[in-house]
Amino acid sequence: MKIAVIYIALGRYGVFWKDFYKSAEKFLLKGDCKHYFVFTDNQEIYAEGNPAVHKIYREKKGWPYDTIERFDMYLSIEKELSGFDYVFFLNANAVFVKSVGREILPGAENDGLAGAVWSRPQESFTYDRNPLSTAYIPLGEGQYYFRGGMNGGTVKAFLDMARELSQNIKKDWETGIVALWHDESHLNKYFLNRKPLVLDDDYCMDACRRTWRRPGKILIRDKNSYKYGGCKYLRGESDKKITFGLALLKSFAKALCPLCPRKAWRKKLRDFYRDW
């Protein structure tokens, strides 16, 4: 079985690549042939001399272009992907911590597609509710909320999806609309009337939610961690790295937020730990 892994490491997000690659080699589909297609503007990346690591130059355009143009990136290597059986995309800050095998490979009964879901009540699904957007999902519809950080399928099904969603995003852009959660909102709309293989949140688990009882298989590392400089630093919106002390303060604010009796103060605390 030949598997293509698509990875986007633009700007400072390149800091995540080495650990991702090493963990994928150790845990992902052991025994199968894996090739990595890395879109990056970094001059050098770890293991780029490996013939299974394909570095593809991509200019960093900033937010939100680096996410809403994601499907165009996939389509730009359509010819290279044609020789593979399956293709998967994973977020830059993903890391494998346990074995992930062929249980993630969808069949015809899944329309050739697979995606990791976020376990939460339906009423809290953050679908795009703008009826003018091609990503619109009405209230009451939708059984699952698929995360944008882990999805894939057969090469044909994956590229068919990329073509349709690329067109939808461009339609929205022409009318001044950007979907609420960009590529993730469009992905949920695409999966709505299909039967993708549903991978539980062990396959896309926020590292902060990991417990000894539920260690997860693929973790999503915290971009706001001082280890990586913080979210704004990673996006290139600031040259100031978050410090350990501030990270600790943000964690305290997050824990305090639900306990705060006043809505105005809860909002201030949320803004502090999300947006700094």
Keywords:
single chain, 276 residues, alpha/beta, 9 helices, 10 strands
Low-confidence regions: none
User: Helix segment count?
Assistant: 9
Look at the structure and give the mean pLDDT: 89
Our measurement of the CA-to-CA distance between the termini, rounded to an integer number of angstroms, reads 44 Å
Tell me, briefly, the overall form. Answer: globular
Give the SSE order as H and E letters. Answer: EHEEHHHEEEEHHEEEHHH
Secondary-structure content class: alpha/beta
Strand proportion: 15-25%
Oligomerization state: single chain
Radius of gyration: 19 Å
Helical residue percent band = 25-40%
The side-by-side strand order for the widest beta sheet comes to 3-2-1-4-7-6-8
Task: Please count the beta strands (DSSP E, at least 2 residues each).
Answer: 10
User: Could you give a short account of the major beta sheet?
Assistant: 7 strands, mixed
What does this structure look like?
- The protein has helices at residues 17-27, 65-68, 70-76, 78-81, 155-174, 183-192, 231-235, 244-256, 263-275; strands spanning 2-9, 33-40, 53-57, 86-90, 94-96, 113-117, 146-154, 197-199, 205-206, 218-220.
- The chain is of the alpha/beta class.
- The strands form two sheets. A seven-stranded mixed beta sheet has the order 3-2-1-4-7-6-8, with helices on both faces. A three-stranded mixed beta sheet has the order 5-10-9.
- Strand 1, helix 1 (17-27) and strand 2 form a beta-alpha-beta unit.
- It is globular, with a radius of gyration of 19 Å.
